[in-house]
Amino acid sequence: MAVEGNIKVMIIDDDNDDYLIISDYLKNIANQNFKIDWCYNYKAALENICCSSHHIYLVDYRLGAKTGLDLIKEATANNCDTPIILLTGRGHKELDIVAIQSGATDYLIKADLNSEKLERSIRYALERRDAVKALRNNEKKYRNIFEKSKDAVFLADENLMFVDANPATSELLEFEKEELKTISLYRLIADDTTAIKIKNALTNREDGNDIEIEVNTKSLQKKNCVLSFTYQNSGDDKIVVQSILHDITTLKRNEKANLQIQKLAATGRLVRTLAHEVRNPLNNINMSVEQLLDEAPDEEEKTYLDIIQRNMLRIDKLIGELLDSSRPTELEFAACSLQEILEEALTMAKDRLILQNMKLITNIATTPLIISADKEKLKIAFVNFFVNAIEAMQPNDGVLEVSLYNNAGGKTIKITDNGYGISEENLARLFEPYFTTKRNGVGLGLASTLNILQQHKANIDVQSTIAKGTTFTISFN
Question: What is the end-to-end Cα distance of the chain in Å, rounded?
């Protein structure tokens, strides 16, 4: 028996003779010391059990007006977990079953009682108590890990219907716990191919490790996550899928931003090298043309020299623009209202909307949202977004939606159009310098816009669907 020192036993019986007989049985148990107390009052017995003042209780079925079964039921209702053994004068199978179901640890018949049976019953009851206590401690420990994990941890059935989920799951997916129990993870996975891959793995009883998925939250925001899962049989022929969903949205966004920074840096080095190599021979050509012009050529020769000179100036101007786009812009930071910057940028773009007969919807927070910014440069960045959105939409059918709101993550601006969308291939190259899908475009507008936003330490995310439209999300800390 896993109890150090004396085992404290209380005999609850309203018959003094029975108490003495049971005490003798306990005293005759070898190699074990018992401290034996007697209680014959129902109310006092219940208070004692609820205080857990003894290691084990031996309760007679007959206790005057009430029964030992009533006592066990009341003790169980009060969350008393000290082991109780029910004693009765006569064997009764139904009583045996009811006693165990009500919370009794064991059921013994007094007529068959002896020291050996009593020792075995007490030993079993105390060992069971220790096992249950250890199980509860483990459950509490793992439940604590489950509840406080920063990752989304959840249990699901074989169809990935949520069965149980920790608070982080609700926070990530934006569904309340009870709402989650009515949906399947498959419904939230953005990519059908990934959903099929996961379904095949579960069908084949395979575990999933670090599967990158994109999930849609309740507000239809897309989150990049890593899913790991394992399955187990719950014992009743039901499959339980244990899963962890780790949010890597910020990591992906930072990786994308770092990649763009590296691309801009590499492109800048290339542009500066080419500009140097091109401008040297260009200067020589320009000096030669000026010399020829000074020698008073005839009108036909002068016409051709003027053409050469004009195009040299165009090349020189283009080189200047390329250099400007590749070097950090000099910014002058000051406290600015985002509402004011957005409204002024929209005013600059409004003529295009009117000419194309497009609709503008704004949802801008009224509480002033102040950031440290270069107002004019940031205004240029927003105008570039608006112009690109307008050019992506059909005249007469275009709808431009601009939102500004404050949330826990900072100040967020969303610019949404219902244009022709951007393919995945082009989306990956969207902010690359000199990349454009426009016939007469140079491909510097969004590159310089990204440059401005990065200098403002803003994060940018782009979501696009072909033939449905594009959303740019810009977040300021």
Answer: 62
Q: List % helix, strand, coil for the chain (3-state, nearest 5).
A: 50, 25, 25
CB 8 within 8 A of CB 53: yes
Q: Would you say the C-alpha torsion 245, 249, 250, 252 has a positive or negative sign?
A: positive
* pLDDT bracket for residue 272 (50, 70, 90): confident
Cα torsion 23, 25, 27, 29: sign: negative
Alpha helices in 327-423 (DSSP H): 338-355, 375-391
pLDDT at 469: 95
- For the ranges 38-42, 258-262, 290-294, the lowest mean pLDDT is seen at 258-262
296 token code pair? 């008073």
Which residue has 């810009």 as its token pair? Answer: 474
In a 10 Å sphere around its CB, with 0-12 CB exposed, 13-18 middle and 19+ buried, how is residue 83 labelled? Answer: buried
The C-alpha atoms of residue 13 and residue 61 are separated, in whole angstroms, by 8
Q: Between 96 and 201, where is the model more confident? A: 201
Contact indicator for 222, 463 with CB cutoff of 8 Å = yes
CA distance 202 to 457: 42
Q: Given the structure tokens 């395979």, which residue do they identify?
A: 206
CA distance 477 to 460: 12
Q: What separation in angstroms does the CA of 343 have from each of 90, 346, 362, 375, 470?
A: 89, 5, 10, 12, 21
Q: Residue 59: which H helix or E strand, with range?
A: strand 56-60
Lowest mean pLDDT among 118-132, 253-267, 307-321, 351-365: 253-267
Taken in order of first residue, the domains within the chain and their CATH numbers are 7-145 (3.40.50.2300), 151-247 (3.30.450.20), 252-326 (1.10.287), 334-476 (3.30.565.10)
The mean pLDDT value for 1-7 works out to 65
Judged by DSSP in three states, 397 sits in coil
Percent of the chain with pLDDT over 70: 91
Instruction: Give strand pairing partners of 463.
Output: 471
Pull the structure tokens for residue 412.
Answer: 């967020």
Token pair for 237: 């022929």
pLDDT digits (tens, 9 = 90+) for 415-441: 999 999 999 888 877 877 666 666 555
